[in-house]
UniProtKB/TrEMBL annotation:
This is NnrU domain-containing protein. It is found in: Membrane. Its main location: membrane. Pfam families: NnrU (PF07298). Keywords: Membrane, Transmembrane, Transmembrane helix. InterPro entries: NnrU_dom (IPR009915). It comes from the Bacteria.
Amino acid sequence: MWKLILGLVLFLGIHSISIVALSLRNKFAAKSELGWKLFYSVVSLAGIILIVKGYAELRQTPTYLYVTPLWLRHVAATLMLPIFILFLAPYFPGRIKNVIKHPQLLAVAHLLVNGTMADVIVIVAGLGLYLVMAFWLHEVLFGVRAFV
C-alpha cells in the first residue's frame, strides 16, 4: 500500500506546485526551464509507476470496504453517459466547457461501484485534492469567495 500512497503523493504533489507554490515553481523554471520540465516529468513518471505498481499489488489481495448492490452498477453506467460529452467538451467549440469547468462525475460513478481499498484510495485522493483546491483557492483563482 505504501507504493500506491507514495505514488499519489508524488503525482498529485508535483501537479499541485503550480497552484500552491507558484513562486517556487517560477524560481526553479527561471534557473533552467528544461531542468524544471525534466524534474517535473521524472517525478510525475515515478508517481505514475508507483501508483500502477501499488494498485496492482492491492488488487491481488483486495480488501473490500463495501459491496454495492447490483442495481447500483446500472446507475453508475447511466452516470457515465454524459461523461463522454464532458470529457471531449474542452476540445470543441461550444458552451459546455464554459458552464462545466471540472466535471467530477466520473470519480463519483467509479466510487459508487468500486468498493476495494485500492479503488477508494485512488478516487478519494484525486477527488479530495480537487475539492480542497477548489475551496481553498476559489477566491485566488476565480475572484469570488467560496462561501459568501
